[in-house]
């Protein structure tokens, strides 16, 4: 399967994050995509540079003030203190209930809180460059489908599905899957499905399309009662206004097996068929894998061929957009197993 890939993913190389108050190495690492690229090349899949400039689609999906903030955030951070070159900024205050969310403070950390949903999304010197290149890859993938091809993979990194209109979170800055869907609609498609199979609910994507009937958003994920992102992704979230009925969540319990997961994908597939879309965008997370260090499903490497096969049975032009998956060693194998299962 053709893959859009820019080397700029290497520029997003934060050194640490916090887990329960402890500084730990980043789960979302450069090595993740290194491993995917190695597996793609070893198994004969061609990688090409993104051809699109996602800027105009980014301006539709994301808030311009947020985009401007993340574009310059690192420079603003290091300008505060020479020592900051060796550190990463994390938010420590948020405009939650009873506070105002219409104030853009002058204080950098307060702005970071305004534009973040968590303190688990490390920002580094090259984050914007990497995120923009991942968005360019996603829009290139959309354009490739519009040119008449049946499938494509966007090796976007950092991931995107937790990022909303004006916030980052969950290792995500720009919502690559939403950008791909919007690019398809902007260039003539009438209806697009975004199917999110990352272990974590795609809260950013859901929120971006919640009131729209031209995008059916379906997500299969760890039950947010116990799993990140906690505050969205529950079964009773079905869309609003024109979007009523066009948002479907399948929360599954810790320990979910491949058999259970696949039967859920079959249910999702019925809804996708009923919607009669022009194209399918897959938020492809591989953190459903049994050995994923931060997730709790039990899917095995070989099972991913069948995931690809089931997605191919929907018979739609399909863009795979890379999201999570933190078992770095197996990640390349697992990604390429999905893509080759689809192509069989
Ligand atoms: C794109 C994506 O997959 N983002 C995931 C963001 C998850 N952030 C929360 C990480 C919580 C880590 N929990 C670790 C448990 C390890 N024992
Ligand atoms: Zn995930």
Automatic annotation (TrEMBL):
Histone deacetylase domain ranges (all copies): 28-340
SUPFAM superfamilies: Arginase/deacetylase
Cofactor: Zn(2+)
The keyword Metal-binding is annotated on this UniProt entry: yes
Pfam families: Hist_deacetyl
Record's keyword annotation contains Cytoplasm: no
Keywords: Hydrolase, Metal-binding, Zinc
Annotated InterPro entries: HDACs (IPR000286), His_deacetylse_dom (IPR023801), His_deacetylse_dom_sf (IPR037138), Ureohydrolase_dom_sf (IPR023696)
Assigned protein family: Belongs to the histone deacetylase family.
Protein name: Histone deacetylase family protein
Species per Swiss-Prot/TrEMBL record: Marinomonas ostreistagni
